[in-house]
């Protein structure tokens, strides 16, 4: 179950979405090579984009057609995508979204990703300081995973992954390092 910290972070995200144009979902393109490979490996036909933001890359349907998938979009911070997904999906992707969830809720969120996926879950996270100051108060309290390392993300997934294969891609632009690991 989500903690009060989760609801605090979600309220801040909803407020931001109501007034500004952030969390567009445009950074999905950074992860498409990995996602394409996993789609091919598992013959994915259905996909859930968990934490899709405003989903600008999915809007016209071109990307879904190119990938050969039927995509469901979910983001509790965006009114038009806040309806809880129903059922399960061949693959769940979550790109640059878990970093906006308090540390106390990461395990719960990973369990949700696992629960929606039949074959694979792909997580992509940016490492290092966050430019958006949305959760700066919570980050200052140590409640957010903004300074987590690749190994911390993989460790969090490893303790929760049960039903399918997880793939974790982290990118640290400061160090010029991008790593992907499969966690089973």
**Residue windows where pLDDT falls under 50 for at least 5 positions:** none
Enumerate how many helices there are, as a single number: 6
- Can you tell me the overall shape? globular
Percentage of residues in DSSP E strands: 15-25%
- Terminal Cα span: 24 Å
Derived from helix and strand composition plus strand pairing, the structural class reads alpha/beta
Helical residue percent band = 25-40%
Radius of gyration: 15 Å
Q: How many beta-strand segments?
A: 6
pLDDT average, as an integer? Answer: 87
Task: Explain what this protein looks like in three dimensions.
The chain contains 6 helices and 6 strands; from the N terminus they run H-H-E-H-E-E-H-E-H-H-E-E. The chain has 184 residues and is of the alpha/beta class. Helices cover 32% and strands 23% of the residues. The mean pLDDT is 87. The protein is globular and about 45 Å long. A 6-stranded mixed sheet has the order 2-1-3-4-5-6, sandwiched between helices.
């Amino acid at each position: 179950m989500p903690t009060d910290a989760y609801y605090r972070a979600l309220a801040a995200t909803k407020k931001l979405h109501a007034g500004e144009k952030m969390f567009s979902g445009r950074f999905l393109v950074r992860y498409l090579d990995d996602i394409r490979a996993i789609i091919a490996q598992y013959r994915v036909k259905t996909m859930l984009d968990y934490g899709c933001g405003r989903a600008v890359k999915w809007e016209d349907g071109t990307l879904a057609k190119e990938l050969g998938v039927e995509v469901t979009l979910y983001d509790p911070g965006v009114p038009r995508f806040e309806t809880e997904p129903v059922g399960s999906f061949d693959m769940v992707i979550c790109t640059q979204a878990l970093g906006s969830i308090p540390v106390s809720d990461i395990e719960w969120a990973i369990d949700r990703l696992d629960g929606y996926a039949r074959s694979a879950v792909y997580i992509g996270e940016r490492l290092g300081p966050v430019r958006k100051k949305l959760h700066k108060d919570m980050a200052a309290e140590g409640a957010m995973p903004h300074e987590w390392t690749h190994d911390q993300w993989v460790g969090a997934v490893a303790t929760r992954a049960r039903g399918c294969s997880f793939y974790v891609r982290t990118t640290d632009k400061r160090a010029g390092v991008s790593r992907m690991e499969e966690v089973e």
